[in-house]
From TrEMBL:
<dbReference type="InterPro" id="IPR006059">
    <property type="entry name" value="SBP"/>
</dbReference>
<protein>
    <submittedName>
        <fullName>ABC transporter substrate-binding protein</fullName>
    </submittedName>
</protein>
<keyword id="KW-0813">Transport</keyword>
<dbReference type="Pfam" id="PF01547">
    <property type="entry name" value="SBP_bac_1"/>
</dbReference>
<feature type="signal peptide">
    <location>
        <begin position="1"/>
        <end position="23"/>
    </location>
</feature>
<dbReference type="InterPro" id="IPR050490">
    <property type="entry name" value="Bact_solute-bd_prot1"/>
</dbReference>
<keyword id="KW-0732">Signal</keyword>
<comment type="similarity">
    <text>Belongs to the bacterial solute-binding protein 1 family.</text>
</comment>
């Protein structure tokens, strides 16, 4: 339906993995991996946005499911426009059985159109016992659980070059003001503080969301995400002003505002971890590690590390997340077997397959941190899971696409305009409210 972001380019070196894992808890022999091949001769089709290494690693999970149940699987890559592709397949009588949905708004759209089957009691029990309640909330519509969050992103991580910070004599900051102060020290040492990917409007929404969640608190965050609070609220204007302190400071942004607006996400990572560094830090999700490792050969934990997005104005440090939820379509030719796949995906055993392969975080607290292949990923996963119900899903992913997920329009475009000229937070808030009101009404 819209852009990829929560899992963009998140890949690390795959590790060898045996599929002969022991059974994990309850739900009958199929979901628990009893190995009785109860689904032999059946095929489950799965649609999702993943390509490249992400698709290959998810295929390992599907292969493990096949080894246990006898079912064959077929993965269909939808590209960014999930809802359009899935809608067309439903209309054409060729609906997939399972869809990996990357936005809360799309999951809600599918449910309200009557496309989804409620998840089984086995899956719901696994969610109740293995996930923080917030994940069930984001997977439910009108109190019915339709989506299982299998893969998550931690979007409150600031990645940095340890060499750059050491040379500047600064340590990872604990507050937003300390971060800007540390940024000036880094800049004085010869590098810009931050590389900002302003060409991709979604990165700017993530900046705003982290500041807003910490500064305004979770209740207002939830209200703004549901458009029960207007974007003209004083809390929004204040958060924009806080973000504007960074945007207008040419000493802090590599190349200044103009260059930031011409820098995409991979380019922003390159400015910190590429062969010719221009900045010491880049803010984005845990998937920065995949780009730093795969494209620039950085050893995570040594050449690249992160600190949590710092607390703003005395608030709590934010934990903003995104994720891919598995749903079962009513019109799939093998929805029953698709439901069994979700029962398997709800187990820590299934999550461990991708965790060992790399480029993956699970919100399932029953997954052992030892399943992850490096200390930095373990630390990121621990931060995400230990945040419990204080986790908040990416706000723009909860909004209608016209406002929160369309290139050159809505929140993306207006925050790009704000990056270009952050002098009028109140005016930007009014523009955001006008765009939001139109999109939510539609």
């Amino acid at each position: 339906m819209m852009r990829r972001r929560t899992t963009l380019l998140a890949s690390c070196t795959a590790l060898a993995l045996s599929l002969g894992a022991t059974a994990c808890g309850g739900g009958g022999p199929v979901s628990a991996g009893g190995g009785d091949k109860a689904l032999g001769g059946q095929t489950v089709t799965v649609a999702g946005v993943w390509t490249g290494s992400e698709q290959k690693n998810f295929q390992k999970v599907l292969d493990a499911f096949s080894a246990k149940t006898g079912a064959k699987t077929q993965f269909i890559s939808t590209g960014d426009n999930v809802s359009t592709v899935v809608g067309s397949k439903i209309e054409g009588g060729n609906a997939p059985d399972v869809v990996m949905v990357p936005q809360v708004g799309v999951l809600q759209q599918f449910a309200k159109k009557g496309w989804l089957k409620p998840l089984s009691a086995t899956t719901e029990k696994a969610v109740d016992t293995g996930y923080a309640p917030v994940w069930k909330k984001y997977g439910s519509v009108d109190g019915t659980l339709y989506g299982l969050y299998f893969k998550a992103a931690h979007k409150s991580t600031v990645w940095y070059s340890p060499t750059a910070l050491t040379q500047a004599g600064v340590k990872p900051p604990k507050t937003y003001d300390e971060m800007l102060k540390a940024g000036h020290t880094v800049s004085d040492s010869g590098l810009a503080a931050f590389s900002v990917a302003g060409q991709d409007g979604w990165t700017l929404t993530d900046w705003f969301e982290n500041i807003y969640l910490s500064q305004a608190g979770p209740e207002k965050y939830d209200a703004l995400a549901a458009h029960k609070l207007k974007w003209t609220d004083a809390s929004v204007v204040k958060a924009l002003g806080t973000l504007g302190k960074l945007f207008k400071d040419k000493q802090l942004i590599a190349g200044g505002q103009k260059e930031a607006l011409n820098t995409d996400f991979p380019g922003s990572v390159e400015k910190v971890f590429g062969p010719k560094p221009e900045a010491g830090m880049v803010y984005e999700g845990d998937f920065v590690a995949g780009v730093a490792h795969d494209q620039f050969g950085k050893t995570i934990g040594t050449d690249a590390n992160f600190f949590p997005f710092p607390a703003v104005d005395g608030g709590k440090a934010p934990v903003v997340s995104g994720g891919d939820a598995a749903v079962v379509l009513k019109d799939g030719k093998n929805a029953t077997a698709g439901m069994k796949l979700l029962e398997y995906l709800a187990t820590p055993e299934a999550a461990a397959v991708w965790a060992k392969a790399g480029g993956f975080l699970s919100p399932n607290k029953k997954l052992s941190l030892d399943s992850y292949g490096d200390d930095v990923t373990r630390a990121t996963a621990k931060s995400l899971v230990s945040a419990g119900d204080s986790v908040r899903f990416d706000m723009s992913d909860q909004a209608p696409a016209a406002f929160g997920g369309t290139k050159g329009a809505g929140e993306w475009k207006l925050l790009q305009d704000f990056l270009s000229d952050p002098s009028n937070p109140k005016g930007t808030a009014a523009q955001l409210e006008a765009a939001a009101a139109k999109a939510y009404k539609g």
